[in-house]
Amino acid sequence: MWKPPDRIKHKLLNSRWPTAAQAAQSQLFSPISLVNGTTLRERTWVPAMVPWRATEDGDVTPEVLEWYGRFADGQPGAIVVEATGVRDIPSGPLLRIGDDRFLNGLTRLVDVVRQRSGGRTRIFIQLIDFLRIRRRPQRERYLRSFLSITDEHRQRLAEGFEDSRWLTQPEESVRACLVAADENRVKSVLTSREWEALQFGSRERVTDTEEAHIAALPHTLPPLFAAAAQRAQRAGFDGVELHYAHAYTMASFLSRLNTRKDGYGGAREQRLRLPLEVYEAVRAAVGEGYPVGCRFLCDEIIDGGNDVEDAVTFGLAFAQAGMDFLSLSTGGKFEDAKQPKEGKAVYPYTGRSGYECMPTKISDQQGPFARNVPKQAQVRQHIRAAGLSTPVIVAGGICTFEQAEGILKRGEGDVIAAARQSLADPDWFLKMRLGRGDDIVRCEYTNYCEALDQQHKMVTCRLWDRKHLDESGLRKTSDGRRTVAPGWQP
Ligand SMILES: Cc1cc2nc3c(=O)[nH]c(=O)nc-3n(C[C@H](O)[C@H](O)[C@H](O)COP(=O)(O)O)c2cc1C
Ligand code: SF4
User: Fold this and answer.
1) Residue 418 CA: which ligand 1 atom is closest?
2) In the predicted model, what is the mean pLDDT of the chain?
3) pLDDT in tens, 299-314
C-alpha cells in the first residue's frame, strides 16, 4: 500500500473507556431515528466489509453467517452487509442479490443477525454495481493473442522505424515485432487504453459510451438496483445502502472524470443525474418508509477527481431527494492504484486514495485517526444549514470512545462507523457500553486484513486468526487461520 512520504509511525490513541453509567449517558449509546419507525438503538455502525466468504455463485455460506453473526454478538446499532452485486453475473465469492434464488441465503443472514444481536442491531445491505475489469495479462500472451492488430499500429511502426513497409505487414509480423520490442517502442505503438490493458489489465469505464452496454447504463441500472432493493426488503433487511463510493460504477458517474456527453456526465448536476434516478427507482420499488441511504465519498483524492465541494453538493441533493442516511467514505480509486503483478487484478486501495480510505499507522503528521472526518463534517454542516436532518455516518480510523463522543458532540457526524476496529474486536461497542473497555482488543492499523482482501483471500485479523486454534468446531481457512474472532463472555 501507498504510504505518506514522512512515514511517521503512530502509536495507538490513548483511551479512557467509559463506565457503564457514563456510556449510558453518552451520545454514542443514545438512539437515533433514521426514518419512520426505524431507529438505531445506538449510534454505532459496522460499515460494509467484503470478507470473501460467499460461494463462487455469490450465495450465502455458513462462513458468511458466522462472520455477520460474530459482528452481531457485539450488538452495534447497525451492520451493513458487504458490497453485494445487483446483477445476475458471475463475480467470484462476492455476495449477489441479482435474482430471487439468492433470497433464501440472504433471509437466513438477516435471521442470524437478529437472533445473535438479540434484536438490538439493524441490518442493512450495500448494493453495488461494478464494471468489468481483467487481470494484468502476461506480456507475450497479450501481444500475441489478446491485442487486436489495426492499421493504426502498422502506421505507428512505420513512423517509428521510418520504414513504410510496415504499412502492409501481416498481423503475425506486427505481433512478432511487438513481442521483441522494448517497452518504449511498444508504448509508442499501442493506444493509451491498450497500453493500460497491458500494464494493469483492461478496465471498463463509464465513459466508454462507444460500447452499447456502457452507453445503456442509465437505462439498465435503475431497474437493477430497484429489483435488488426489493429483494433486500423481501429478505427482511432493515434497509439498503446504495454503493456510490470508491472505484465502482455509481461513484464513477459522480466523478469529475465522468465526461459522458449524453446528459449523464460533465457538470455536477449531470453527474448526479443517474445516482438520483437510481435512488428514485429504488424508492418507487420499496415504497416510502423503508430506509434507503447511500455511501459516497467526501473526497476522491485523485488528480482531477471530486473534492469536498462536490461531496457537499451531492450530500445536499441526496438529502433533498429523501435519502434516509448518508454514509461517508474517502478515496479508494483505481486511477492511482499500483501496477498489479502479471495475472493479478488492479486493486483500488494501493495508491494515495486507497491510503485515505483505510489509513495505516505509518502516516504523516496528522496520523491515521479520523483524518477525513473534518471533510465529512463539512458535508453534514451544509445539510443541516439547509434545514435537513438526514443522519450522516462518518468513518476512517475511529477507534476510541473519546474520538467517537467528540465527533458526535461537536456535530461532525451522527453515527460512528468503525470497520477495522470492529474486525479486530467485534465486541468492542458492547464492551464500551458495559463499562468493560479495558477488555477491548485494539486494532493496530497495519492493514493485514486489507492485504488479504487484495489477494481475494478470506479476510481475518492478525490479532486473533492464530489464537485458540484447537477450539472445537472451529472453522478455518485453507491456510489454517480461524475465520472469526474468539468469543467473549460479558
Ligand atoms: C477488508 C475490508 C473490506 C471492505 N469492504 C468494503 C465494502 O464492501 N464496501 C465499502 O463501502 N467499504 C468497504 N471497506 C471500507 C470500510 O467500510 C471503511 O470505510 C474503511 O475501512 C475505513 O474505516 P476504518 O478505519 O474504521 O477501517 C472495506 C474495508 C476493509 C478493511
Ligand atoms: S488485521 Fe486486525 S489489527 Fe490489523 S488493521 Fe486489520 S483489523 Fe486492524
Assistant:
1) 26
2) 97
3) 999 999 999 999 999 9
Classify 187 as helix, strand or coil.
helix
Cβ neighbors of 178 (< 8 A, separation 6 or more) are 143, 147, 153, 185, 186, 189
Q: Give the pTM.
A: 0.97
> Ligand 2: distance of its center to the CA of 418 in Å?
12
Strands (E), 52-184: 78-85, 122-128
Q: Distance between CA atoms of 458 and 391, rounded to whole angstroms? A: 32
Cβ–Cβ < 8 Å for 226, 282: yes
Ligand 2 atom nearest to CA at 445: 5
Instruction: Give the number of the ligand closest to the Cα of residue 423.
Output: 2
Does residue 36 register a pLDDT over 80? no
Closest by CA to 241, choosing from 311, 325, 313, is: 325
CA 247: distance to chain centroid?
8
CATH topology of domain 8-134+207-454: TIM Barrel (3.20.20)
User: Cα of 411 to ligand 2 centre, how many Å?
Assistant: 28
Ligand 1: which atom is nearest the Cα of residue 443? 27
Q: For the chain, give every domain's residue range.
A: 8-134+207-454, 139-200
175 Cα–ligand 1 center, Å = 42
Distance in Å, CA 65 to ligand 2 centroid? 21
Q: Is residue 293 pLDDT above 80, yes or no?
A: yes
Give the integer Cα–Cα distance in Å for 248 and 329: 13
